[in-house]
Design brief:
By secondary structure, this protein is an alpha/beta fold. It has eight helices and seven strands; from the N terminus they run H-H-H-H-E-H-E-H-E-E-H-E-H-E-E. The longest helix is centred in the N-terminal third of the chain and has 12 residues, at about 30-40. The chain binds S-adenosylmethionine (SAM).
Amino acid sequence: MSLVKKIKNAPKKIKWLINKALRKNFSNIDKKLWDDEYNKGGWEFLKDPNELERIYVAKKMLRKYPADKKIFEIGCGEGIFFLEMDKDDYSYFEGMDISEVAINRIPTTPNSYFTFADMEVYEPKNAPFDVIVLNEVLYFSKDPNALLLRYTKYLKNSGVYLIGMYSGDPRSAGVWANISKSFVDVDIEPVSDGKKEWIYKTVKLKP
Ligand SMILES: C[S@@+](CC[C@H](N)C(=O)[O-])C[C@H]1O[C@@H](n2cnc3c(N)ncnc32)[C@H](O)[C@@H]1O
């Protein structure tokens, strides 16, 4: 049995202790699982032309904000969103993901920075940002509302979150409800490729 499988099957208390001992800037167990997924090609479908519909909508929503904006993307994967941006859509783009495999596939530019880390503990390098983006990632957080509250200190006062989630994911309705405790909708865009549907929103902290 592989080490990762042994750890996964270990009693809860042991798992917690191992995780705590290994944890630096990320959970090594989660990192290994996501790295395996990317190595197996499990997320290749995110690059399908139909899937890109959600990225185009997100990009259009961002055009409301100044061209020289600073963007931070949490759970950026292989940089699909970053790679669809035109270079005059941002002045600086920072991205992070728990998967080192995914991060290593992103071609960097002088005004961008990508790293692998756990979103639950990451501290961005070059805050504050105009927009913090979460594309299909918020349902992987232990507590989405608490996660957004923690990152709010890295947003400018005028800053917003741009969040997209697949409506077919059974967790998405719960996540939208959870973050509405502290955040209010600014813009809402339903997205459809004819078969799949997503909701994209910009949200900001309640006054
Ligand atoms: C469905 S994929 C979406 C990838 C990308 N945002 C996109 O839309 O193409 C979910 C992403 O969340 C990342 N992820 C999951 N848990 C994470 C964590 N704790 N910290 C950072 N990234 C995480 C995964 O590695 C994966 O790249």
